[in-house]
Every structure is written in structure tokens, then in C-alpha cells.
Amino acid sequence: MDDNRLWQTKLLARLHDPAEKALVLLRDPAGHEGGTSRALQRLLGIEQIAGETLPADSTHDSHTLIFEQGVSRSMYEVVKRADWLAAAADRPQWPMGEITVSTKRGQTRTLKVADWAQVNWAKRPVLIHPLTGTEYDLGRLGGLSDTDFHDIKSRSLAHFARLIARAPDGVDWRKSLLAIWRFGSELQEQEDFGKLGALWRLLPADTRVPDHSIWDHLDLVSAFGGAAAADPDGETALLALSIGPVQPFIRAARSTSDLWAGSHLLARLAWEAMRPVCETLGPDAILFPRLRGVPQVDLWLRTECGLDASLFEDCDWTRGGTDSNPLFSAALPNRFVALVPRARVADLASTVEQSVRGWLDSLGKRVVDRLLDAVGLANGSEQYCHQQMRDQLHGFPEVHWAAVPFSLIRARNPDRQTDLDTSRLSDAIAPFFGVAPGEDSGFLQSPAWRVLQREACWADGTTFFAPNPGVLYPAVYDLAERVLAAAKAVRPFGQSEQRGWRCSLTGETEWLTTDPEQLETSYRRQTDTLWARVARGTRVARARPSWAKPGEHLGALPAIKRLWPTLFAEEVREAVGGDLQRFVVSTHTMALAHQIDQWLAHGGQVASGWSEALKTHQPEAVALPRRLVSRYQRQNPEGLADAKRLVGLLEIADGLRLEDEKEAQRLKDLVEDSLSSWRKPGERVKAETYYALLLMDGDRMGAWLSGETVSGEGVSYRQSFHPDIRAGFDRHATGNRLIEDYGRQTRALSPNRHLAISGALNDFALTLVRHVVEVEHLGRVIYAGGDDVLAMLPVGDLLPAMQRLRWAYSGHDPSHRSGDRDGLVLSQGFALLDKRLLRLMGEKATASCGAVIAHHQAPLGAVLRELRAAEQQAKTRGGRDAFSLTLLKRSGGIRQFTAKWGEPLQVLSDLRAFLGAEGVSRRAVYNSLAWLKDLPDPQDDGTMLERMLAYQLARQTRSKALAAHHDVPGLARRLTALTLGESEKRLEWLANVLGVAEFLARETRNTDND
């Protein structure tokens, strides 16, 4: 089809409702269709056809638009059907009453929303969380009745007019569509519509069901319309596609840089898979994940689609010269769901596979070329390692896909599109549920479908709701997911012969070499290999320790991961400008973060001999946590520069320990003397040696995406109504069993649910995770993609950061103190940060977290295994919505305890504060553990345990006042209550809590003997 026709259709779909619809309904005499939408249509060459109405059985407002510039009525019909399907898929239908209107063609019967089912939303602005049903009443802030709708309309028109792109022969339809999709929901400072900037992104599409935004609805109409317009028969299909494998690719890591590179590279591969769909149908064709605001997609829009660079000036990714730049976030999952033309499904899937593998092959060649160039072996010709790279990348990543056409749903009577025949859909689903053909299963057997499949009428015979194929989105999605799972289960396996010595990181493939004969001998016995030269350098090239350390010899995928930080930083520098670098905070730096913070806060004075040590050893400046840099780069830049070399001196000392122990100790003493310079004379701090890793994962994400009821009752149709609607609904539904059932029924899965989940996960991963870890605390995000978070933190920040991330995930902090810290407010499933209102997963959503405290020299692979085990422990033994913390002592001891969020974590924090207070003996926990060994697990009410615990803790304090200040009796009571709540091994659980709290309470953990 003509590309212009596709983009015109999508633009028409996107303009059929104005963005400010909720603010002008029942206020503007011209109606919402007579405002911004009509003005923009005229600006683009669109006009309204007088007298045109929707079919009599439709339950939606008439959007009677058509292009002037030679566009046929069929385009209008495509958009009308897209709106019809999108509305049915996303929200409840509404009672309609018949009215007669006079037109130039005579009297015409049409439909009108019943008076009691209309809402003046500006008078009572209420948002309802789509995943929990929680009401967020903006009226508490004064309401919106005083907003001038005339001003809002004019500002809205100016905002969208600015986004229209011009071509030499008129409108550039593609660029205009992309600009309006990306920036329609965002306002510049000067465009704040009556101070509605934070709310603009969440203005509801339907004031009667204010649980999804106008942008959600316009995205879906555009997706349905574009897919139908690009199909010869106007048919649409739901495409589900995934790439992998995921975990083995990320898990192969020897450093934090490897961890970041694996996750970020996988996210980039995911984008390369999505790119063909975005280029062909627009980014709104992808329903999950939502791509609006994702930095990598923004970069594509600006550099490859040619959108005006000035539109992106307020985007965070256009600023920042370190890896705190959002472009370094791994923000995309390895799968997507999209609406596509039915006839082009196979071609699109094939194009996706070719795109993602072709991009990786090209990257592999760049990696080999850079390795050869780094050691002076590049001569422009094909070498053996080029062929190795191609062979080892063959078939990676795996691409699996499934598609289900909406044409499986047909109307029994062409003249009555609401009388649906689902027999073909039922036959397609049956094998996955083990039922006979013709027997309903899955969604078609659900209570929701039993209610939705029948047209419902009021007592007077007027229509309340009538189903159309959009209502069956849950069944279509479920079938696509099941077919995709089946495709993964029967994936072909291609063998790859690997004869020589294997990669030192994975042990799966040969390491890359310029001479195949080198593979016949252990690389440990060779000094002239490609990797040996990269690690040590040559006469003509410097060593590349970030690419390979001595002894490392890598295969194709590990080599790509190892060079990816360098290559991606170069790519971003070229696109964004500036001297952007990829910095990785080391485990040693993270261990010292709090001590460096205290040192800089007190002036950052260095000890005698500092200058000589720098001159002699020339340590590299290391990367510091973002919070340290932002806090001190202006108030103490010299101290910050010294801090960046302080860790470098410690690492040099570690390397000298076997060669020159005396010099190694001198450097360590120099660093510790510097860190102690602000303390009292004779009070010398030991350098901290432990750090923490945190791995958090959302619970039951598959259930959330499939529409299953999670964490109690789901949201009913009635619960999703605006409060002003419910009373009228109840009054009119009384005695009508079908309509009463409709109101009580849990809402079925919808595209809006997917958009809501994806939007919440994007905001969490791209905005809140970095804010919590790197702004509120001294940590570093390694990756944050959707509901998955991996972060590194100093030990002192671990507990508060864990809890804060948990509350940020659901968008609710029960302490209600969140607004006091760095401007982040979390309440009722929403977050307010930097004047942005973000909708998150809601209070019913839970997450589980594993955490490990380890010595900075502990092998990262072993620490990661313990970290994943801790996360699984939280989900299994903790029963989800829990955390599990493992303490790995360098002396070999391990302590682990698992508990639910909330009180257990607060008790651990309070116990840590008590044990770390000046005047409390280090033997407090030691003595308690000693007598716990001889006690049986408590079976009574715990009175004896509580008294003994209170006695042991109190007797180790310097004074009764100190014990009273920390409420030792209350602490013992809370500890006992939590212990009795454990089903088994209660005293072991208590011992672990005490042991971990004591370890956390130490000012430094350079020694860890019990």
C-alpha cells in the first residue's frame, strides 16, 4: 500500500479525539469533537462530513472525519472500526438512548449516552488505578472547575500544531505521526495548560471509566487502524515474539561491567527486533512494552526518523557525560506483543529475525576489527577470528513468534456485527486445554465471557452493551501466548563443532584467535595470542584491561559483551555529543562509598605522603557513585579528584601484597590515615571491605499480563466506574440480572491493562530505580529492565534501599514520609517526582528481593549464584512479597534469613541501630547467640524468650538510659513476635537476624571473626 495512506490513516485515528476531551466534556457547547480535533483536521486538510452518523447498533460517539486530499471513505471506515474495536477491548460499554436530530438530509436517528451516565470530570476529577481500582481524587487539590476550557483548547492546538512536520509538498505524514505519538502527552514548561503539566499524561479517555488515559486509547486506535490499513483485506493479527536465551547470556560475567553489558546488550537486541515493526507500522503498533519515552527509541526517532532535535531538549538522555545517562539503562524486555496486518505476519517475523541477527553479526565484525586494531594486527583482510565470530554467532539469538488473527472471530449475520461466531477461535484454543473441538475453553469458558457475549438491554429495551470482536482480546492474547510457548518448546537445535581450547569465561566455544593452531595448546602456555596481547599491550599499543585481563581468552559472545561498554559509549557520543564515557563502579569503590562520603563531607584532607604516592604509583581515577559526584563536584572538586584516586591506591596495594608487602601496607595506611583525618586524634578507621548486591523481581508478572486475579479480588466493571456513575448504574440495573452480573464481574484482560503495566514498569525502571539507588542512596544500578533490578550498594544503604525500592515498585509508601526525601512521593499506586505524575503497578503488586553482602574480593560468579539463590528463597520460602538476605563472610561463615517486607526489615534496622550505638558492647549478640544454642524452639507464647532476650541485650549497654532510648524491651518483644511467626527452625531464624544485625552494625567489616 501507499505509505502516505498508512500514516494518514494512523494520524486520522490519533486525532479522532482531542487530548483535552476530559476537560471540555459537558462544558464546551461545541462538544469535544468541535474543538482541537476539528482545528487540527483543518490544519492538516481534514474536514467533517455533515450528516454522517455511525450505525444504529454502535454504542460510541460519531467521529465523522475524512481527508480532503483525495482520501477515500474507506479510510474513514477503517478508523471508525478501529475506534469501535479499541473501545470494546478497553472499557465497559455504556447505556445509550435514542434521539432524533435534524440535518440537511432530513431527520436521522442516532444514539446518545444516557443523562445519568455522563460526568463533568473537571468538576469532580477522579482517576482510578486500572490494576487495583484505587481512587485518586484530584478534587482534594481543589478540583479543575476553574480551568478555562477555551484557554486549554487554544494551548492544546498550539502544542499539537508545533508537532506537525512539513514536507516540500505539504505535510510529512510519517514524521507528524511520530512526533504527535511521542510528544503529544508531554508539555514544555511554557505550555503548562493551567498548571496541568503533571496531569496531562494521565487525562482519561473516558470520564465515566477514568482508569486509562486518552493516550492509551489513541495508541490503540492508531494500532488497530494502521494494521488494518496495511492489510489487503483490512484484517488484523496479534503478534507475540520473543528472543533468547536470556539468563545464560546475562549470567556469564566476571565483573560488574560484564553484568551491565549482558543485560544492556540483550535490551539492545530486543530493540533491534522491535525496530522493523516500528519502521513499518509505527511504534504505537507495539502494545507491550510501551515504547514512548524509552531513550533508545528516542534516539532512533531523532537520528533515523529525522524528528526535530529541539523536541528532545528536555529529555534526560540528551544530557549527562557518564553512564547515569538513561541511554545506559537496559530498559526493554526480550519480548513484545504487537498489532500487525494479518497478511504480513510471516514477512514481518522474518524481517525481525534477519534484523536482529544481522545487527549482531555486524557488531561481531566490529568487535574483531577493534581487537585486531588494538594489538596492531589489523591489515584489512579476513582473518580466522572473523570466521570464528560468524560461526559462533550463527543462530543467535533464537527468535520465536506466534500470531493469531482477529478474523477467527466473525459475525454470524453481516448486518449485525455484534452477533459473534467464536467457533473457529474455540477450535484453535481447544488443543491447548485438552478439550474436544467445538467445546469452549480458556476465556471462552470464563464468567467474564458468559456475561459479555450477550447483548444486554435495559427494561425499556434500549441497548446497554453489545459485544464486538474487540471484547475477545483476552482470548486472542491467551492463544498467542500458548502458541508462542509451544514454539519455544520445539525449538530446533543446531550443533556447532568446537575442537580447540575453550573460552575461559563460558567454556562453551573456542576462544578467538588469528592462528587456529594456537587452539591446540592451552592458552596458559602461550604469550603471543590475540588475547594475551590485548591484556598486556604491545610496543605499539597500550594494554586494554577492560577488554581482557591476564589469562582471559574469550569466545564470540563474551568478547562482544566485554567490548560493548566501549562501543556503545562511542555510539552515544557520536549521536548525543560531548565526551560521554562508560564508567563502572568497582566492588571495592562501592565498599568504601560511605567512608568516602564522610571524608568529603569533612573537607577531604589527605594524609602526609599523598603527593609522593600519586607520583610514584600513578593510580587511575576510578568511577564514584553518582550521589557522591553530584554532591561534591562543586563544593569540593579537589577532594573529589583525590577520592577518585584513593580507591586506585588501595587496588595497587592489593596487587603489591605478594611482591612488596611493606609498600603495600604503606599505601593502605596512607589511605586509612586520609579517611581518618577528620576524626578525633587516635581514632583511626579501617577501610571497609564489604559491599552489597541486590536483585529484585516483580511477583507473578505472567499472571499480571494474562489478566489473572492477583493479590485478592480483581477490579470489577462497576469498580472501574467514576463514583458519580455507580449510584445511577445500581439504580438502573436493579432487577436486571444480566446487567447486575456485568457490574460485579472482574474486568477481562484488555490492551489497556498491557499498556498500563508496560507504562508502570517503564517509569519504575527508567526513573524511580535510578532515583532510589543513585539519588537517595550511594548505590549504582547495574540494570533495571521492567520489573527486574540489579543494583550494587554500600552495606550501610542496603536495608533502606531494599524497602524503598519495594514501595516504589507498587507506588505506595505506608510510612507517608517519602515526600521528605529528595522530592519523591509514593501514594495509592502513583508517584510524584520532579513535577511528573507517574502511574505504577499499584498496591496489590508485590515484588521479592534477594540480597548478598560479600567481600569485594570474593569471586563475582560465586556471589551472583548466592544472589539468585537468595531471590528464589524469597519467592519460595518467603512466599513472595518477601526478601532474603545472605551474608557471605570472608572467613567462610554464611548467615541467611528470609522474611516478609515491612516489620521484619524495620526490626532488623532498629536492631542494627541499637547494636551500632556508642556504649553497646560488641559482645551483645555473641552472648545472646551463646545461650540460644542450648534452647529448644519456643512453643509457648514466647514470654520466656522475650525476657531473656531483653535481659541479654540490656546488660550489654553502658547505661539504662541507653537501653531505654532504643526501647530494648520493645525491641525484644518485636523480635520474639517475629520469631514465633516462623513455622520452623525459629531459633535458627532468630540467630541469623541477630548475626546479620551485628555485622551490619559494625562501622567497618574488614575483620569478620565471630
TrEMBL record:
Keywords from the UniProt entry: Antiviral defense, Nucleotide-binding
One Pfam match: Cmr2_N
Keyword Nucleus: no
Domain of life of the source: Bacteria
Keyword set includes Nucleotide-binding: yes
GGDEF domain residues: 689-888
UniProt cross-references to NCBIfam families, sorted A to Z: cas_TM1794_Cmr2 (TIGR02577)
Protein name in the entry: Type III-B CRISPR-associated protein Cas10/Cmr2
Organism: Thioalkalicoccus limnaeus
Lineage per the UniProt record: Bacteria, Pseudomonadati, Pseudomonadota, Gammaproteobacteria, Chromatiales
